[in-house]
Backbone:
């Protein structure tokens, strides 16, 4: 019995040491990944000044997630704080004190938004560029042009506080930053005519990729707090979230209210932006989601 207990203690000790070694390696690898340089060819944008383009940029800023991380005035806001060490805050992108974009060229804006790469070549980390990589040049130019007109607001740079388990998982490759998910060689997407069509709906659905996955089948949200529910499966089929939304009006009502048709609250969704989606975008999105091949969760 004593020999068995001694052997078990040795095995346990070895496992603890191995786990500690893996954790230490993950921690160090995380630092290296955060400091890595990513080569993305500059793609300067021709920024428009006409009223129609600035109106389009204002709409995109309000409806595509920008306000949820940067605030309606671009001053930056905390969008995750679980009280257990995970705290994420978008930076000030207005022209006011503490902003991070004072020296941004149009090419810097493009690289940061579309590729998740800062002007110095390092990953932007909390910028969900997988959602914005397929922006057309026209829409991205309109968005940047509008952002550059934001009135000065006082704010601070981004906050990226990761608890040790999250940092270690990132270092070991179980969680990727946006720059690590994107094919940086892809050319910009070509314009799609706005209308209630699956093609336009697919374009709108790009804003859902960061949480719901490349195939929109849902699953655990990478890097999210442990108490966050899994992202819903947006493909059609029995048991998926889309069974609750048989028509576009029901989807629009959920975006506006933050509640499911049964009245229950939805815990994690960027409703600050989703409620601003216009009727055409919501109807096109619903049409596209209903056209997808049914997939199992995740």
Residues:
């Amino acid at each position: 019995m004593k020999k068995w207990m001694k052997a078990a203690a040795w095995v346990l000790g070895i496992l603890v040491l191995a786990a500690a070694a893996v954790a230490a390696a993950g921690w160090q690898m995380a630092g290296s990944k955060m400091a890595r340089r990513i080569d993305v060819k500059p793609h300067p944008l021709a920024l428009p000044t006409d009223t129609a383009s600035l109106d389009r940029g204002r709409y995109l800023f309000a409806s595509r997630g920008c306000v949820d991380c940067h605030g309606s005035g671009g001053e930056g806001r905390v969008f995750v704080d679980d009280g257990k060490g995970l705290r994420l805050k978008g930076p000030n992108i207005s022209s006011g004190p503490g902003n991070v974009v004072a020296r941004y060229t149009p090419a810097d804006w493009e690289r940061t938004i579309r590729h998740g790469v800062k002007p110095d070549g390092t990953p932007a980390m909390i910028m969900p560029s997988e959602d914005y990589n397929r922006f057309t040049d026209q829409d991205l130019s309109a968005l940047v042009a509008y952002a550059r007109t934001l009135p000065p607001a006082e704010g601070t740079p981004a906050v990226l506080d990761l608890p040790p388990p999250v940092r270690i998982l990132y270092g070991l490759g179980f969680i990727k930053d946006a720059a690590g998910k994107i094919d940086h060689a892809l050319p910009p997407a070509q314009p799609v005519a706005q209308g209630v069509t699956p093609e336009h709906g697919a374009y709108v659905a790009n804003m859902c990729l960061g949480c719901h996955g490349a195939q929109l089948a849902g699953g655990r949200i990478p890097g999210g707090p442990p108490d966050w529910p899994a992202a819903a499966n947006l493909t059609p089929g029995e048991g998926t979230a889309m069974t609750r939304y048989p028509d576009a009006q029901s989807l629009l009502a959920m975006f506006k209210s933050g509640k499911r048709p049964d009245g229950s609250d939805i815990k994690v969704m960027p409703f600050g932006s989703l409620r601003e989606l216009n009727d055409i975008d919501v109807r096109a999105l619903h049409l596209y989601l209903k056209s997808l091949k049914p997939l199992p969760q995740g």
User: Anything to note?
Assistant: Residues 75 and 155 are 5 Å apart (CA to CA). Strands lie at 78-81, 87-89, 159-161.
